[in-house]
Structures are given as structure tokens and as C-alpha cells.
Amino acid sequence: MLALAAQLATNGLISGSLYALLGVSWGLIFATTKIFHFAHALTLTVAVYAAVLAVGQWGWGLPAGFLLAAVVGCLFGVATERVVYRPLRRVNATSLNIFLASLGLLIAGESAVLIVFGPQARDLPGFPISGIALGPVAFTTVEGLWLAGSWALLLLLIAWLWWTRYGRAIRAVASNRELAQCVGIDPERMSLLVFGIGSALVGLGGMLLALRDTVSPTIGVQPVLTAFIAVFLGGIGSIPGAVLGGLVLGLAENMGGLLLPGHWQGVIAFVVLFSVLVFRPSGLLGVRTR
Amino acid sequence: MDFWLHVVNMIGLFIMLGVSLNLLLGYGGLVSMAQAAFFGVGAYAAALSARDLGLPFPLTLVVAIVVTTLLAGVVTFPALRVRGEYLILLTLAFQMVIYGLMLSWVDLTAGRTGISGIPRPRLFGKTLVTPAEFLPLIAAGALVTFAIAYRIGESPLGRVLKAMRDDETATLAIGKSVLRYKVLVFCVSGGLAGVAAGLFAHYQAFINPFSFNLDRSIFLVALVVLGGTGNLLGTVAGAILFVGLPEVLRFLQARQDIVDAIRNLVFGLLLVLFMRFRPEGLVPEHARGRRRQGVGQPAPAVSVTGILPSAGPAHDGAGPALVAQGLRKSFGGIKAADDLSLALPRGKVTALVGPNGAGKTTVFNLLTGFLAAEAGTVSLQGEDITRLAPWRTVRLGLARSFQDVRLFERMTVLDNVLVALPEQPGERLGPLFFAPRRTAEAERRNRDQALGSLAFVGLADRAGEIASSLAFGEQKLVALARLIATGADVLLLDEPASGVDLQWVRRILGLIRQLAAAGKTVCIVEHNLEVVTAVADHAYFMEAGRIIAEGRPEELMADPRLADIYFGTSRR
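YS: structure for the whole thing
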């Protein structure tokens, strides 16, 4: 029982770390621009497809594939902001309408990927998968990379946000757009920046996922949904909150396996989300605004 | 032939689903990304009750409707404060959970395999099998669903839903329980989706989870939005166009998944383009040719007492109409109300004056229940109302307006006022469907009353216009007419004359005096000292959450100490 609990906690920590990365990638965009960027899922798909093509078809090495995913994700996110969202802001679209446009972009983009590449699942080859045993717990090399990769990126991002000029400017826009404008920060530029960074991160997160799961046009939806939940759990606008939210979600899902049969696992995320929103609507680390 | 009849049947089913979602999204302003989940749960309920419990057809439909209605109620009820992005997220999560359960709860749903052998329905001694045989049933279902949704949408109930969509806070402030209407519209929407679900299960005779996935939910949202939110005809047009037309593609391309992908591609792009160039959809809410209420009707002759709907004499006892004692409220370190007491004398105009940030609006929020006081009591006509929700205090006769007006912007001027009238039978499902005559009579009376309120403020001729198209001064007058329509005896006006031209100021002040003369108790928060002296009988002077002086306005104005505080001139 204890060994099982330790194993489940490890699994929770591993998937939680990836959730945290995905959560931060989306939460950064949402906090700064207030756009419910559903098409983040499309960014993930596009970035991963580019890399799968490069690694699987053109024979690129895996590290180059990761780099490509980050670059493609970044460019795609920036293009989305410029081509879709900025024109909508110009005509004072409501946040609901912006969300709907994002939804439209997602279904259109997924369909385009499906038409071009077909519905069949693809693999990301080239990563040596083997088991690692660490005392009572075991995990695979892929999972090891999830853990290491997610935390490396998370810490890098947090350091950047807290200790650089641009990072601080982004946090300023996130906390008060108008006030930031008054001290000379251009919110439009910061929007581009967060779209670039968030989208590069989700491309990398997608690659981590693709090491274990197969790649299909709809690969982006489920992880990005997890990212939404992590962000709302942790509290909108709080980057450490999104990290905590991701970890809580991963642990809750896996530890729930101790008590419930497998098919109820998905319900756990919902219950956790529900209770947090009802009892603490601003999220675990969110600022209370009422 | 059968193929085209099948397409017609699918359009019928999507009309039902679209209409059910439009009620929620277009009228209630509540985005649900889980409509396919409700559809699916209903379909499974009908399928399992027919196959495993052996229930006959109409009963299985009832089972589907009951299950989806209850599920919708259960899902919304705990989510009291959920709106906007939170609602999107919750319904998304709910959709994923239900879909996940359909796939993995194999004992119940048979997972991916799905449920086959759902018995064909027997009606009037005939077993329905082919699309042609199902057509009348599905058409009837679509018609009934549309009729129910239309009846609700274009009724006083639909008016409250639209008000809630446009401004929840203002809806509370006219005495409507937002929570009640949210739960109600979710349940109705769930139930209507249940109708489609029951018919779908029997029609297909086979269901699996893939008909009820997130893509389907997204498709429904897109269909409603492209058709036009807040207009059910738009949804019908959307269903015909976006379900019917893609079927033509099947003749060009054999592969189902590619056909679906092309359809979704076009659909998604349309959604992006519509949001940019035509956010109101194909058939806008206020399409030309639709009834513009009240326009062209002669305004009834108006006397002040005629437009005041309140029972008036019921409260002409002695003593002040409203008494607050020892109110306390702090935000962080700032004391917005600090042991604050005041009384509003009946039939008089009282003013609350003081510099910016003194806590005047907070006092209104505390009196009306928009904020909970940390200590102290509020009583209205001798009755304790301290802990009541804002909409309840309005029902008891205490209503407030807002500094920033907060009209229901996408509704007509007349509807803005009509919606505020209390106790409308058409706001409840029972009378709406089972006492149509009483509902219609009440609506006529209410319409006259609302037009009367508008005539009182001098805007009867603008009744048919969309509220957001009015000038700011006119909007303030509409807000005043709306406040009067609530029938409350005690009216709290937050800066009724700020931000408008002098001519409007005079008009508004005249109206306030008339209201007081007709027996209303009025309290205003005001910055303009001339306004205060012109209109108020009594004034309280506030600073930093405390009342530091009271008296006749002229006396207060004459006090150099208060002038110092007010104008911020140095005391040193």
C-alpha cells in the first residue's frame, strides 16, 4: 500500500510537472492579454507536427526537433496574435467574441492539419525508452525527461519574469494594463512577447508529450484543457499559482487511483476544480478581488 | 430519397439542440461548452431505459428529458458565482468528464463499442424505421422545442434573461434573483437538449460516445453564434445552412472524415471572420421587421401619482423610512464605513455629501446588500434587512441606481423599464405556459405602466430604441424610469446628475422633487453642491467612512470647516 502510494505520488509529480509547464504557458498569455486563447491547443499541434515531420521524415536529430517545435510554436502564436486577436481588439470585440474566434481558429486549424496530413496517428521516433528504478518507485526515461525538462523551463521562465526588465514589464501589464501603459510600457508589444514565449513553451511541452503518446491532429486539446484547469486552480495571473495548480492536479488525479476505479479518474480533476472555485473563487494563490 | 430525408431529420435534431443552446447563450449570456454532453447523457438514458428496462417509446423520451434537466440543475446549482471565463472552463471540464465516462465506464456504456439494438419506437400501431417514417416525429419535436424556447425567449422571462446577460449586477438591483434565473435557464436548456437526445437515440438505433464529444459541443456553439445569438430564427437558419449544405459535399468526396474536416475548416474560418466583421450573426437579435415595441403608440397621459406603482399608503407610518445603525466595513486597512448611522425621513430628499473616497457609494452598497457589513444593522420600514440579498431588498421596497448607469445595453429602452416591474406572472414557467391569458393581460398592464414611467421622465418617444444608442443624459433618465418601475418606496440615487449637461441636470432635479412630493423617500449621493442645495431637504456630510456633520444643506455649506475638507484646502 505504502509502495503503491509512493509510486502514485511519483506519477502525480511527473504528470503534475508537465501540467505546470502547460499551465504556465497558457496562464502567461491569459494573465497578460485576458484572452481565453483556446487556439493554444492548435499551436501545440502545429509545433509538434512540424517536429514530427522534421525528425521522422527528414531525418533531423531529436534535439533539433525540439528546437524547431519551439520556434514554430513561437511564430505561430505571434502570428495568431497579430492576424486574429489584434484586429478584434481594434474593433472592441467582447471577450466572449474573442474566445469564439479562438475556438473557430482551433477547429479550422485542426481540420487543415487533418486534411493535409491525414487522421492517422504518428510517432516521434528516436528517444531511448527504458526504465529507471529509484528505491521503491520506478519511472521511464521519458518521464525522467518530463520532470527535468518541465522544471528547467519553469525555473528559467520564473527567473526571467522576476529578474529582467522585460519580465517585470510583462508582470506589470498583467497586474494592471492601463497603469503599465502610463509608465511607458507598450501593452501591444508585451502581448506579442507573451504569445511568443507561451507558444514556444507549449510547443516544447507538446514535444515532451509526443515522446510518450502518439501524435494526431487533436493532440493539443486535452493537455491545453489541463492547462486551463491548472491556471484557474492556482489563481489567474499568478505564475507560481499555475505551477502549484498543475502539481495539485497531477497529484490528485494519480492519488485518486488509491480510492477510486480507473474510469472515475477524470472526474477527480473536475471535483477539485469545482471545490476550489466554489470555496475559493480566486484560486489557491490568486489575489482576492471583490 | 432516404438520404435527403435523413439530412432533413438531422437538421431537425440540430434545430432542437441549437435552440436549447441559444436560450442559454444568446438570451442568458451563459456560454456552455457542454451541450453535447447533455445531449449524450440524454441519449444514453433513453437508449438504456428502452433496451435494458424495456420502457416503451414516449416514456424513454420522458426519461431523457428528466435526466438532462436534473443533471443541468445539479451542475449549475453549486456554481453560484460562476460566469464568464469560469463558466467556459467548468462546462469544458464537465464535457470532458462526461465524454471520458462514456468511453471508460464500460459496464454501463459499453465504451467505444456503444449501444446498439435500441428498440424502434412504435407510435399509433406503426413501428418507425426509415427516415421517412421518422420525419413527422422529428419535425413535431423540432416544432414543439422551438415553440417552447420562443415562448420563453420572447416573454417577460426572456426579458429577465437578456437583462442578466447584459448586466448581472443591474439585474440584481431591479429585484431579480440572478441565481434563480440561471438555474432555471440551465434546466430548461438541458431539458430541451433531452428532447433531441431521446429522439436521436431511437432514430439511430445505435449510439456511441463519438457523437457527443467536444467537437460536437463546439459545433453547436458555432452554429448558434453564426446563426445569431438572441434570435431563435437565426439558429434555424444556421442549422439548415451548416448541417444541410455540407451534405452536398458527400457527393464530391467519398471519405467521411475528409468531408467532416472540410466542413469544420469552413466553419472555423467563418467563425473567425464573423467575429471580426459581423459579430451579431446571420440573423441579428434586433433584425429589421421585428416588432419594435411601443413605437408609434400614443403615450398615455401622465400624472406623477399615476406612474407610481407602489402601494404607497401601506407605509405611511411615522418615523424614518430607512434607518442604518453602526455600519462598519473595511477594505484591507481602509475603513470605508466606520460606525456609521443615518436615517432617511419619509417623503424627503436626503443627500450624502463628502469628498471623493469618503465611502458614499459603499454606504449604498451596504444598505442594499451588495456588500455585507461587518457590523451594524439596516432596517426598512421597521423591518431588519441587514443580511438580505440585494434583490430581496428591492422586493421589500429599497432600490438603488448606479453612478455608471448600467442600462441593459442591447435591450430596447422600453424593455429596460419593463423588466424592472415586480411580480410579473410571465417571469415564471407555470403562468407562462398554463395561464397565457393572465400573462398577456399582465403584460399589457405592465407595458402601459412602463410607458408611463418613460413618459414621466420624458422619453416615451424613444421607447423602441436600443438603450446603448441613447445619449448619456438620456440613459440616466432611463435608469431613473427603471428605478421607479421597481415600485420601491425608498430610492437611492448614486450621482443622478453627474456627467450630464445643465439642461439635463435641471430636468433630473425636477423629477426627483416630484418623486419626493409623491411620497417617495429619496437619498442621493452627489458631488455638485449646487445640486444638493437645490434638491435636498437634509444632508449628511461624510469623511473617511464617518458622518461628521448633518443638517440643512445650506447650513453645511456655510460651515468653513466642512468646506476645507470638501475642497481639500489646507487646514494647517
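YS: worth flagging: The longest helix of chain B spans residues 178-204.
IM: good catch. Also The CA atoms of residues 257 and 263 of chain B lie 10 Å apart.
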